[in-house]
Amino acid sequence: MDIAAELLAGSRLALSRAITAVENEYDEATAIMQQLYPHTGQAYVIGVTGPPGAGKSTLTDKLVKVYRRQGKTVGIIAVDPTSPFSGGAILGDRIRMNELTLDEGVFIRSMGTRGSLGGLSRKTADVVKIMDAAGKDVIFVETVGVGQSEVDIVKAADTTVVVLVPGLGDDIQAIKAGILEIGDVFAINKADREGAERLKAELNMMLDLDQAKSAWRPSIRQTVANAGQGIEELVATIDEHAAFLGTSGELVRRRTARARNELIALIEEQISHRILKDIAASGQLDALAAALAERREDPYAIVKRLLAAYLR
Amino acid sequence: MDIAAELLAGSRLALSRAITAVENEYDEATAIMQQLYPHTGQAYVIGVTGPPGAGKSTLTDKLVKVYRRQGKTVGIIAVDPTSPFSGGAILGDRIRMNELTLDEGVFIRSMGTRGSLGGLSRKTADVVKIMDAAGKDVIFVETVGVGQSEVDIVKAADTTVVVLVPGLGDDIQAIKAGILEIGDVFAINKADREGAERLKAELNMMLDLDQAKSAWRPSIRQTVANAGQGIEELVATIDEHAAFLGTSGELVRRRTARARNELIALIEEQISHRILKDIAASGQLDALAAALAERREDPYAIVKRLLAAYLR
Known about the structure:
- Two copies of one chain form a homodimer.
- Chain A has about 300 residues and is of the alpha/beta class.
- Chain A is built from 13 helices and seven strands.
- Chains A and B meet through helix 3, helix 7, helix 8, helix 11 and helix 12 of A and helix 3, helix 7, helix 8, helix 11 and helix 12 of B.
């Protein structure tokens, strides 16, 4: 069975299997990605991030419905980097309750770290490409929190929506600072709560102070996702940003930079994988680790020897 | 000037400079680390992690004072992976107000990502080694939050203290699940607040359910850090865990596993660095990125070519 060919022919099952292959690092994953790659680059990718409790899932669902009404097909990737074992399950609960799962035009997948640390942002980028090749018009990448892992994950997006909420308390400054630079559009959700105007004013001030100004000044929209308020306006703002990226040449620049970073990550992964497999297979790795733990060797001398042995 | 030699002779300035060299990836960093490596492995490393607002800094300060009263010298590394630009500053504020900075037996350093994503956990591990070589008896690695980055960072620790606090709300389940497996000792701080007993009961239940049981059953202590309550008991529990690691052979096992992982990370970094430098210098990288963005090539074919060209 050729998963990539079936996926390109429209099979939902093949789409699901391709994602599983990437997620679990099956041997066929590389071949699948290689076949799909020429068919990618068509979808528009929207990142949704923000602190826990900001209502990101509800907001994403409402945004998805707007795009569905426009006749667009949608992929949703819900990523939870916080928990190696229960991440999938937590997001799974959300998904089981989600009416979107009944819509054939929507494909939802949740991803966690599944015990293998690191690599989640690269896997997410691959899953974006798989959904892209499968013909989804718009792909949402939604994270559960804010942190460095989330920042890396939303790098796969063309437009990043940062969802904030009034009344988060003391840590808001730290949160805001870290995600200011990745937000193209800010949604102040639960805007019927006290403090929404103050948060907007603070955010505007921080955006004005931001040193790394680009031609796009991030927009702020207020929403009440569970009441459906402000959703159309938020979509309009996302579309504005998409139009800006297109006309300014920024989309090509961003996607080229992304391709560059993904290539670097792949080079690092594949080369290290090849060399480490060889070293581990020969039993050298354990012997070297023991020598290091006992301070009989230092890691820099070891790596120098290995470089000389493996590189041309 | 030989930074490593001066550091080993007791210079605080050299200690500070060695850390800066590692943090900013100066060329001399590798030579310094190589000279210091044989002098490491003496310090006991304690990781302190937990959600924002749990009182980790206050708790760390109180723990440090106990060790100081025992005549031990202490290093503190405060790591903030959440913010590329303001992390250092936020921790800096904390540190400027800290009376520990007046104690010659304590060395405090804060670290952020400083714009370079990734690598923070490896740099933290190097800073631990630098303080270790400088003769600190106990080294604290304190993070600002909980997330995958923090989990990676506290891997440098022999004993990991997870600080929790009553009344964190809905997200506690997610937080707990992710850090359950890394906690050797749990501190329920602000234990004079409502809900401390319930949190302890919940935590005990989760620990009992934990599948990956080891010979050490994590202990739970209640503390009120800013009132100095429960601190001596917490230190006693950390010491108990340290004794367990020693007598069970687990310390050697953990440190060997850590040496193995650090060696793998160093191999990946150095080999990729060497190859990428070469590719970037030749202008190939930009040309390849452009070809990828336009789908004229696929990344897997490129990497295969590069592997053939660079590896023996």
